[in-house]
C-alpha cells in the first residue's frame, strides 16, 4: 500500500480509522491461522484420526518409535520457548495508529510525521526492565515504552522508557549495570526488584546513575497502569527537513489518561494477588473500547544552540527543563487493537533504535551509539537468525527488496538469478534511490567530525548530581516523602553496611542534604552537614516533574468497587449504574458470595464478583452502599477489611445510608475523600473530582495508623 491509498478522501476519524485497519491488519491477516471448521492435521497436512492415544504395541504395550504423529507433536512442544529478552523480558503490547498534526514540515521530511492525513499503523510494547517473563507487573522499576511505526518509508522504532534519563552514560557500562540490577547470581533473588546488594553496590560506586535512580525511587516507578505512564526517547535525536536543515530533539509522550501511581503497600500486595495487573488492565481497556491515547511532543534545540546549556545534550543522564525548551506537540497515537497471539506478536516483536527512516537521524550520545549495535545482535540469538524482519509483526508495510539471501528461517522465495549488484542478468534490479525531499533514499546527516580517536569521557558529562536534585526539588511534598520512603525500604534490604553508607553519604548527600539526612536517620547512618559536590542547575525547579501536573480531564475506564449485602438500597444502585455509564467507568457490584443478593425491593441484584476475590487493590475507589445494613457489615470481616484497605491506600470512599455507625466501628478519621450521604446523586460530581485526582494525599498521616 502506498501513501496515496492510505490517505483520507473524506475528512473524518471513522474513515481514517477504517483505512488504518488496512495496512498492517491486512498484512497480519495473511499470516493468521484460524482452525474453525478445519480438520486437525500434522504439520505436513496429514489428517489425524486419533489425537488422544499414542501408537502402542498392544493396548498395554510400549509406545512405538514409528509414531510420527506423537514424535512431531512432542518435538515441536520441546522447542516452544525461545530465549527471553535479557532485559525488558516482561512486557505486553497492543496495536494502534499514529497521526501527525499539521505543520511539521519545518522540522522533518519524514512522511509519517508530516502528512496529517496518514494514520500510520503502530505496535507498542510496554515492559519492566529487571524481571523475567513470568515476574510481577507492579514491581518498582522503570517501564520500557517501545513503539514500532510501520511507515510508508520503512519501519521506524522509537525505543524509549517512562523515565527521561538512563543509569549510565556510555554503552560500555550497560552490561555492568544490568548484571548489578538483575537477580544475584548465587540465589537468583530478587525477582523483579532492585532492593538488593549488587544494585546498590554498583549505583553507589557510579554516581552518574544518581538521577535515574531518583526516578526509580519515585512514584513513576510504580505506575497504577500502563495507560497512565509518560514516555521519553531519553537520547537527543536529530530531525532533518526537506532542505537538509537539522534540529536536535527530545521525544515526550504524554498520556491523555493523566499520570497515576500505586502506593507502595498496594504495589507489593498486587504483585502477589494479581501479578498480571498491568497486562490485564491494558487488554480490558482496549476490549471495552476505552482506547488509550498519547500525544507526541518534541523539545527542539537549534543546531547552533547545542552548547548553550550547562549540561551536555549528548549526556543521557540529563533532561532539558521545559522552562528552557517547551514541548511542541507534533502528533498523537491511539492503541485500539489487542493482539491475537501473545507469542507471535508481543514476544516476537523486535525493536531496534537503528531502525530509522529518512528525515530522522542519530546523535553521538555514546549510549545511543552502543544501542545501535546491541538490538539487532540480541535478536540473532532470541529469534534464531537474521531473518526476523520477515516475521509478521516485524515486517514493513512498504515493499522491501535487496540481495540478502538464505539464512535460518528464510520464508521468502526470492526469484531471479542475480542476488548481487551491479548485475546485468536481472537488469540491475533492485536499484538504489537517490536522496530526495520526499520518498528518497536514506542519507545520513553530514555532521562534521574532528577529533582524536580516544577512550575518554567529555568533561561536559561530569556533573552527576544537579539534575537529580532538580528532579527531587520539583516533586510535590507527598512525592518527596515517597522517594525518602523508597530509599529507606530499598537500602534496608541491603545486607552490607558499607554499601548503605556509601549511598547515603556519598550520593544522597551530594544530591540534597535534607534527603540524605531523612534517609540516614532511619538507617542509623551519620550524614555530613555539608556536601562536597553541590553544582546547581540553572533551573532549580521544573513544573512538569510532579505527577500532579498531569491530572486527566475525565475518569474514563476507572474502576469502582460497589460493596453490597442483602437489602441494599436499590435506588442508590440504580443511580450509581447510571452515573457509571455516563462517565464510562467500570462499576462492579461486589457481593459476599458470587450469588445474587436481594435488594431493598426484594429483587435479585446480580454479582460482578465477590468481595474476597476482587480486593480493593484492584479498584480506584469504593462505594459502601450498605449503611443501612450496619449490623451485617459489622459482622463481615471481609467488607471491613475492604474499606480499611481502600482508606489506607488513599482512595476515595463513599458511604451511603447510616454511615456514622460504620465509620465509628472502623475508627476511621473522615476527610475530604470520605463522602457520606443518603443519596448517591447528591455527591456524584464531588466523587468524580476525587477520582480524577486519584488519591487523597492529605490522608497519608492518618492512613499510617491502619495496619497493612
Ligand atoms: Fe535497551 N535493550 N539497551 N534501553 N531496551 C533491549 O533488546 C541495550 C536502553 C529498551 O519491548 C534489548 O530486543 C543496551 C536505553 C526497551 O522489546 C537489548 C543499552 C533505553 C527495551 C538492549 C540499552 C532502553 C530494550 C533486550 C545501552 C531507553 C525493550 C531485548 C547502550 C531509551 C524493547 C531486545 C521491547 C531492550 C540493549 C539502553 C529501552 C539487550 C546495550 C537508554 C524499552 O538489545
Automatic annotation (TrEMBL):
<comment type="function">
    <text>Decomposes hydrogen peroxide into water and oxygen; serves to protect cells from the toxic effects of hydrogen peroxide.</text>
</comment>
<dbReference type="InterPro" id="IPR020835">
    <property type="entry name" value="Catalase_sf"/>
</dbReference>
<feature type="domain" description="Catalase core">
    <location>
        <begin position="41"/>
        <end position="429"/>
    </location>
</feature>
<keyword id="KW-0376">Hydrogen peroxide</keyword>
<keyword id="KW-0560">Oxidoreductase</keyword>
<feature type="region of interest" description="Disordered">
    <location>
        <begin position="1"/>
        <end position="28"/>
    </location>
</feature>
<dbReference type="Pfam" id="PF18011">
    <property type="entry name" value="Catalase_C"/>
</dbReference>
<keyword id="KW-0479">Metal-binding</keyword>
<dbReference type="Pfam" id="PF06628">
    <property type="entry name" value="Catalase-rel"/>
</dbReference>
<dbReference type="InterPro" id="IPR010582">
    <property type="entry name" value="Catalase_immune_responsive"/>
</dbReference>
<protein>
    <recommendedName>
        <fullName>Catalase</fullName>
        <ecNumber>1.11.1.6</ecNumber>
    </recommendedName>
</protein>
<dbReference type="InterPro" id="IPR029062">
    <property type="entry name" value="Class_I_gatase-like"/>
</dbReference>
<feature type="compositionally biased region" description="Polar residues">
    <location>
        <begin position="18"/>
        <end position="28"/>
    </location>
</feature>
<keyword id="KW-0408">Iron</keyword>
<dbReference type="InterPro" id="IPR018028">
    <property type="entry name" value="Catalase"/>
</dbReference>
<keyword id="KW-0349">Heme</keyword>
<dbReference type="Pfam" id="PF00199">
    <property type="entry name" value="Catalase"/>
</dbReference>
<comment type="similarity">
    <text>Belongs to the catalase family. HPII subfamily.</text>
</comment>
<dbReference type="InterPro" id="IPR024712">
    <property type="entry name" value="Catalase_clade2"/>
</dbReference>
<dbReference type="InterPro" id="IPR011614">
    <property type="entry name" value="Catalase_core"/>
</dbReference>
<dbReference type="InterPro" id="IPR041399">
    <property type="entry name" value="Catalase_large_C"/>
</dbReference>
<dbReference type="InterPro" id="IPR043156">
    <property type="entry name" value="Catalase_clade2_helical"/>
</dbReference>
<dbReference type="InterPro" id="IPR002226">
    <property type="entry name" value="Catalase_haem_BS"/>
</dbReference>
<keyword id="KW-0575">Peroxidase</keyword>
Amino acid at each position: 500500500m502506498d501513501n496515496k491509498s492510505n490517505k483520507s478522501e473524506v475528512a473524518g476519524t471513522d474513515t481514517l480509522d477504517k483505512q488504518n485497519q488496512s495496512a498492517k491488519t491486512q498484512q497480519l491477516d495473511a499470516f493468521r491461522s484460524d482452525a474453525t471448521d478445519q480438520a486437525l492435521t500434522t504439520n505436513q497436512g496429514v489428517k489425524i484420526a486419533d489425537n488422544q492415544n499414542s501408537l502402542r504395541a498392544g493396548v498395554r504395550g510400549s509406545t512405538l518409535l514409528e509414531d510420527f504423529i506423537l514424535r512431531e507433536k512432542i518435538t515441536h512442544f520441546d522447542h516452544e520457548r525461545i530465549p527471553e529478552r535479557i532485559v525488558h523480558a516482561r512486557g505486553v503490547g497492543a496495536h494502534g495508529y499514529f497521526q501527525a498534526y499539521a505543520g511539521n514540515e519545518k522540522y522533518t521530511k519524514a512522511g509519517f510525521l508530516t502528512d496529517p492525513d496518514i494514520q500510520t499503523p503502530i505496535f507498542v510494547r510496554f515492559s519492566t526492565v529487571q524481571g523475567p517473563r513470568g515476574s510481577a507487573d507492579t514491581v518498582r522499576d522503570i517501564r520500557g515504552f517501545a513503539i514500532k511505526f510501520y511507515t510508508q518509508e520503512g519501519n521506524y522504532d522509537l525505543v524509549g522508557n517512562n523515565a527521561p534519563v538512563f543509569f549510565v552514560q556510555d554503552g560500555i557500562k550497560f552490561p555492568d549495570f544490568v548484571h548489578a540490577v538483575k537477580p544475584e547470581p548465587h540465589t537468583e533473588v530478587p525477582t523483579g526488584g532492585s532492593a538488593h546488594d549488587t544494585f546498590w553496590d554498583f549505583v553507589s560506586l557510579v554516581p552518574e546513575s544518581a538521577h535515574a535512580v531518583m526516578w526509580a525511587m519515585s512514584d513513576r516507578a510504580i505506575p497504577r497502569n500502563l495507560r497512565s505512564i509518560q514516555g521519553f526517547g531519553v537520547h537527543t535525536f536529530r530531525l532533518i527537513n526537506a532542505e537538509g536543515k537539522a534540529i536536535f530533539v527530545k521525544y515526550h509522550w504524554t498520556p491523555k489518561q493523566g499520570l497515576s501511581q500505586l502506593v507502595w503497600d498496594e504495589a507489593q500486595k498486587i504483585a502477589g494477588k494479581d501479578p498480571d495487573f498491568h497486562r490485564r488492565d491494558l487488554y480490558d481497556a482496549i476490549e471495552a473500547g476505552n482506547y488509550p491515547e498519547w500525544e507526541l511532543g518534541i523539545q527542539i534545540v537549534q543546531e547552533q544552540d547545542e552548547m548553550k546549556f550547562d549540561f551536555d545534550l549528548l549526556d543521557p543522564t540529563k533532561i532539558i527543563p521545559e522552562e528552557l525548551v517547551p514541548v511542541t506537540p507534533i502528533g498523537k497515537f491511539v492503541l485500539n487493537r489487542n493482539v491475537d497471539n501473545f507469542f507471535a506478536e508481543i514476544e516476537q516483536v523486535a525493536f531496534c533504535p537503528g531502525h530509522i527512516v529518512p528525515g530522522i537521524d542519530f546523535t553521538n550520545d555514546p549510549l545511543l551509539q552502543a544501542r545501535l549495535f546491541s538490538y539487532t545482535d540480541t535478536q540473532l540469538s532470541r529469534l534464531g537468525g537474521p531473518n526476523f524482519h520477515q516475521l509478521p509483526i516485524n515486517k514493513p508495510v512498504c515493499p522491501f527488496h535487496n540481495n540478502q539471501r538464505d539464512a535460518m528461517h528464510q520464508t521468502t522465495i526470492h526469484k531471479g538469478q542475480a542476488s548481487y549488484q551491479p548485475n546485468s542478468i536481472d537488469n540491475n534490479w533492485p536499484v538504489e534511490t537517490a536522496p530526495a525531499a520526499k520518498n528518497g533514499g536514506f542519507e545520513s546527516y553530514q555532521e562534521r567530525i574532528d577529533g582524536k580517536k580516544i577512550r575518554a569521557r567529555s568533561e561536559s558529562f561530569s556533573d552527576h548530581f544537579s539534575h537529580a536534585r532538580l528532579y527531587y526539588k520539583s516533586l510535590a511534598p507527598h512525592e518527596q516523602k515517597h522517594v525518602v520512603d523508597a530509599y529507606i525500604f530499598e537500602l534496608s534490604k541491603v545486607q552490607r553496611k558499607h554499601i548503605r553508607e556509601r549511598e547515603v553519604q556519598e550520593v544522597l548527600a551530594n544530591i540534597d542534604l535534607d534527603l540524605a539526612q531523612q534517609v540516614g536517620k532511619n538507617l542509623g547512618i551519620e550524614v555530613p552537614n555539608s556536601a562536597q559536590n553541590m553544582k546547581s542547575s540553572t533551573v532549580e525547579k521544573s513544573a512538569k516533574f510532579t505527577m500532579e501536573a498531569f491530572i486527566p480531564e475525565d475518569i474514563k475506564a476507572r474502576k469502582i468497587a460497589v460493596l453490597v449485602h442483602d437489602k441494599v438500597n436499590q435506588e442508590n444502585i440504580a443511580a450509581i449504574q447510571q452515573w457509571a455509564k455516563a462517565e464510562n467507568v467500570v462499576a462492579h457490584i461486589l457481593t459476599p458470595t458470587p450469588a445474587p443478593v436481594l435488594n431493598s425491593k426484594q429483587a435479585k441484584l446480580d454479582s460482578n464478583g465477590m468481595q474476597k476475590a476482587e480486593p480493593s487493590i484492584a479498584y480506584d475507589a469504593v462505594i459502601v452502599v450498605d449503611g443501612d445494613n450496619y449490623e451485617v457489615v459489622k459482622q463481615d470481616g471481609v467488607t471491613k477489611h475492604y474499606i480499611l484497605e481502600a482508606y489506607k491506600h488513599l482512595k476515595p470512599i463513599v458511604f451511603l445510608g447510616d454511615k456514622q455507625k460504620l465509620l465509628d466501628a472502623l475508627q476511621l478519621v473522615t476527610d475530604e475523600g470520605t463522602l457520606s450521604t443518603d443519596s448517591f446523586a447528591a455527591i456524584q460530581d464531588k466523587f468524580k473530582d476525587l477520582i480524577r485526582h486519584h488519591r487523597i494525599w492529605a490522608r497519608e498521616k492518618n492512613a499510617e495508623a491502619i495496619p497493612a
